[in-house]
């Protein structure tokens, strides 16, 4: 087992709007050595992807009439 992290996503809508999970570097395919070499921004990007995988999101273009 590798290094574990708690990851959360909170829309702020209400007290129940927070999604939280635990993940392991092995689960997301990153070695501990690679994690240590990442910048803070790269680490943020990796964990943002973990959080967004479990959320529902999307967009649609609004056509002018």
Give the topology.
Layout: E1 4-10, E2 18-24, H1 25-28, H2 32-37, H3 40-53
Antiparallel strand pairs: 1-2
Shape: extended
Strand order of the largest sheet: 1-2
Strand content: 15-25%
Overall structural class, as computed from helix and strand content, comes to alpha+beta
The H-and-E topology, N to C, reads as EEHHH
Rg from Cα: 16 Å
The largest sheet, given as strand count, sense and whether it forms a barrel, is:
2 strands, antiparallel
Helix content: 25-40%
Oligomer state of the chains in this structure: single chain
Low-confidence stretches: none
The overall average pLDDT, rounded, is: 86
Number-wise, the strands total 2
Task: Note the total helix count.
Answer: 3
Give the total of domains: 1
Question: Could you tell me how far the N terminus lies from the C terminus, measured between alpha carbons in angstroms?
Answer: 56 Å
């Amino acid at each position: 087992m590798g290094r574990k992290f708690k990851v959360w996503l909170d829309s702020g809508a209400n007290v129940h709007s927070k999604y939280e999970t635990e993940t392991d570097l092995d689960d997301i395919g990153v070695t501990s050595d690679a994690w240590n070499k990442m910048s803070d921004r790269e680490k943020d990007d990796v964990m943002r992807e973990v959080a967004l995988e479990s959320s529902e999101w999307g967009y649609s273009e609004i056509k002018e009439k």
